[in-house]
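dumping this here before i forget
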Amino acid sequence: MAILLFVFWIMLSGRLEADVLISGAVSALAIWGFMICFTGWSIKKEKQALILLPSVIAYFLRLFIEIFKANIGVLKIIVNGKTDPYIRTIQTPLKTRMARVLLANSITLTPGTVTIQLDGDKLTVHCLTREMAEGLTDFILEKKLIEMEEKANGKRV
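structure:
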């Protein structure tokens, strides 16, 4: 994490001079030390975050694809003028609260759908059409989150 903080420092400063590099290294180590002392961050969590990094990047790339596809779907609905609003409650197999919140926010970011409520493992979603609601059954982003949870827990995917 200290290395990422240092790289971020260099990107923000835009210079590769000794004084900038030294102050950046000191600042990055100080922030990293603060994280370890006061936020419960650890080397174990850092290794876990590095292991999950490719999956997180793949998740957000897939989210952008889903947003693009949903934009086209909403455009078709606008042109046709045919909406069939539908509210659907789905149960998710995701174990962690963080994964559930990420799924709920991803659904809301996808045009044509809004997560109304997250209660335990149940999400209530408002969709512009019944087809969109049915698309939540095999939602690819939920599968990606399940894979990430399994990786985080050390289970084989």
